[in-house]
């Protein structure tokens, strides 16, 4: 019996160690590095997990691997974990291409961890919308996977008066049933900025918006798309903000949810591919970007994730068109794109204010 | 065995210890005392210690961890006592151990998610109580400090149970028999003999549970719904959201020192005469 206990304790000790190793971003071991690996038939690409990862693998990575014979090492994470890793590996990157959302995309350019995109190397350059690139006309640093946005969601079985505007969140009917994003997720600071603007704050100030947000009776805040989906799925929240794509995925599963484009417009964002500074596989990287911007990949991503495509010639069904973040007849220009550079300037400050004013000590 | 052989045999484990435990800690320490230009500064520590916001979050985290440890101890002791003393068959005992450690086989994400289903306004507890007419409004359990404590207790209980079980198993039952021969009732025997003898197990279990609780990120992050901030979430946010590695590292290191102090104090208190009394 005593022996069993020794084993049990050893076993738990091992478990503690393992659980300690499990959570944080995996260090270099899972990706064969750009520096250490001399083989040229492999590239490392950081993408997102979940539905997005699945769709990207299916519509971009698999055809790319099959047709070029180049193997892709996939590193799953969200924009911030990927960016964090790029920062720490500045001198010797192990990622060649990184997918990051608006906000973090601009930040990665500010921190010089990504290269300028050489548009002449993109086969489909002439068929791409101007919004296909993040950055300025001369210096683009991101190539869009697609555009999406934060809008309003409600459960039509619970909510009698559907919200039409961000301002409606303060309706008495929604008390205790509402959820809005924290600054941790892409839509968080844009929403705070929007509310501040509605409340009469000048650009770059959020004090009135914070005061207004404090009055909201939320059931919980969400720090990412997955958390928001959980809240609506479990019925804990029945009205609030959410991204369009995941809402339509839930609707497709039979949940009584509706997505509303607020009067003020959907708060837009994009996900962009970045060429990591210091990659030695420029040729393979651009070959991949050509697959990512191809008509078929863009159609596949739009059909599966309801992302607004950046290829001019994509052909989408009526049903998919209705689910675009700007509605059926709109275009990417109709999205209410926040000034992500301004957000980045205030990122730490606003985050800090949110923690102090909204959550408290 | 010569000294040399002993050293040689020890080398691998010492190296692993240095590589996996000491080195990352040094990296964190190094990060915390560097400014952007690379010179040494204590600015980030001052920023932390001067700010009542962070100090109150730290205090709240310590409070929640201590509470979770205490509740885990009560529940864990009861379960450990029951399995060692009342389950006689060896086979059943093995089954009991497997049941106790089985939660550890799934990730904290899945287990926390389970609690979200149970504790929510539309969750199992509230729905049951509402159906029975005991309450008319759902009780707020999820997205509160209470919810976080419940989640932590559940996730950390196996560590406490196992360390107490080990000690309980090894108590010489003749000591307890002697106590009752000498006229002590069952409760007094427990209080004066059994309990003091299990202090090493309580100590080990508490240290494990407390340190896991104060450093837990996944459970509080999921069960707080962004409404409760703990020190682990602050550190995560500094590292992963605002990318202030220096400040994040300083907070992490300061909390490590707080934890050491509390664990040391606990050690000192439980090593007092009380333990000795059990041995007499």
Automatic annotation (TrEMBL), chain A:
This is Spermidine/putrescine transport system substrate-binding protein. It holds the Pfam family SBP_bac_8. Keywords: Signal. The keyword RNA-binding does not apply. SUPFAM superfamilies: Periplasmic binding protein-like II. It comes from the Bacteria. The lineage of its organism: Bacteria, Bacillati, Bacillota, Bacilli, Bacillales. The keyword Manganese does not apply. Gene3D superfamilies: Periplasmic binding protein-like II.
UniProtKB/TrEMBL annotation, chain B:
It is found in: Cell membrane. Pfam families: BPD_transp_1. Residues 58-266 form the ABC transmembrane type-1 domain. It comes from the Bacteria. Keywords: Cell membrane, Membrane, Transmembrane, Transmembrane helix, Transport. InterPro entries: MetI-like, MetI-like_sf. It is a multi-pass membrane protein. Its main location: membrane. The chain crosses the membrane at residues 7-29, 64-83, 95-118, 148-168, 189-218, 247-270. Belongs to the binding-protein-dependent transport system permease family. CysTW subfamily. This is Spermidine/putrescine transport system permease protein.
């Amino acid at each position: 019996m005593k022996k069993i206990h020794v084993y049990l304790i050893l076993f738990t000790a091992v478990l503690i160690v393992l659980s300690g190793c499990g959570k944080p971003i995996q260090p270099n071991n899972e990706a064969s590095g750009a520096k250490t690996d001399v083989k040229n038939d492999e590239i490392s690409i950081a993408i997102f997990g979940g539905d997005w990862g699945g769709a990207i693998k299916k519509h971009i990575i698999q055809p790319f691997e099959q047709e070029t014979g180049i193997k892709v090492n996939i590193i799953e994470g969200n924009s911030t974990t990927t960016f964090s890793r790029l920062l720490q590996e500045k001198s010797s990157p192990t990622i060649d291409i990184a997918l990051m959302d608006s906000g973090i995309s601009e930040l990665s350019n500010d921190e010089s961890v990504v290269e300028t995109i050489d548009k002449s190397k993109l086969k489909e350059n002439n068929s791409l919308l101007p919004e296909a690139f993040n950055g300025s006309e001369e210096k683009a640093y991101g190539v869009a996977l697609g555009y999406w946005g934060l809008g309003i969601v409600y459960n039509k079985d619970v909510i009698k008066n559907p919200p039409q505007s961000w301002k409606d969140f303060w309706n008495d009917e929604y008390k205790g049933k509402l959820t809005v994003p924290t600054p941790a997720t892409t839509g968080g600071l844009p929403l705070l900025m929007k509310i501040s603007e509605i409340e009469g704050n000048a650009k770059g100030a959020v004090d009135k918006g914070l005061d207004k947000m404090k009055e909201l009776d939320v059931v919980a805040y969400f720090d990412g798309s997955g958390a928001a989906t959980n809240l609506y799925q479990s019925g804990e929240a029945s009205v609030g903000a959410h991204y369009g794509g995941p809402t339509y995925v839930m609707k497709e599963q039979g949940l009584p949810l509706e997505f509303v484009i607020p009067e003020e417009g959907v708060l837009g964002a994009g996900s962009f591919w970045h060429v990591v500074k210091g990659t030695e596989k420029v040729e393979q990287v651009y070959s991949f970007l050509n697959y990512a911007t191809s008509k078929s990949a863009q159609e596949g991503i739009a059909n599966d994730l309801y992302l607004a495509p950046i290829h001019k010639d994509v052909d989408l069904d009526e049903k998919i068109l209705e689910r675009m973040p700007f509605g059926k007849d709109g275009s990417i220009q109709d999205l209410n794109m926040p000034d992500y550079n301004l957000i980045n300037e205030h990122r730490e400050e606003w985050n800090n204010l949110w923690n102090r004013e909204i959550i408290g000590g | 065995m010569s000294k040399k052989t002993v050293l040689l045999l020890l080398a691998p484990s010492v190296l692993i210890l240095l590589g996996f435990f000491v080195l990352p800690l040094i990296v964190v320490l190094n990060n915390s005392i560097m400014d952007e230009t690379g010179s040494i500064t204590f600015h980030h520590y001052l920023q932390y210690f001067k700010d009542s916001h962070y100090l109150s979050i730290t205090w709240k985290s310590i409070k929640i961890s201590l509470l979770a440890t205490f509740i885990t101890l009560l529940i864990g002791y009861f379960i450990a006592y029951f399995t060692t003393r009342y389950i006689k068959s060896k086979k059943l005992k093995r089954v009991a151990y497997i049941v106790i450690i089985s939660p550890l086989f799934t990730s904290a994400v899945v287990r926390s998610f389970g609690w979200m289903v149970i504790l929510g306004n539309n969750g199992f507890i509230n729905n049951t109580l509402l159906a029975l007419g005991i309450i008319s409004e759902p009780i707020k359990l999820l997205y509160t400090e209470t919810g976080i404590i419940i989640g932590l207790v559940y996730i950390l209980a196996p560590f406490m149970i196992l360390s107490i079980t080990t000690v309980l198993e090894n108590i010489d039952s003749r000591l307890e028999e002697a106590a009752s021969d000498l006229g002590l009732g069952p409760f007094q025997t427990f209080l004066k003999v059994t309990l003091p003898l299990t202090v090493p197990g309580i100590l080990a279990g508490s240290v494990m549970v407390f340190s896991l609780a104060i450093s837990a990120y996944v459970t509080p992050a999921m069960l707080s719904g962004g409404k409760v901030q703990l020190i682990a979430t602050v550190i995560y946010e500094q590292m992963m959201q605002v990318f202030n590695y220096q400040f994040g590292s300083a907070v992490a290191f300061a909390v490590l020192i707080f934890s050491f102090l509390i664990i040391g104090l606990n050690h000192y208190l439980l090593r007092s005469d009380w333990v000795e009394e059990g041995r007499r």
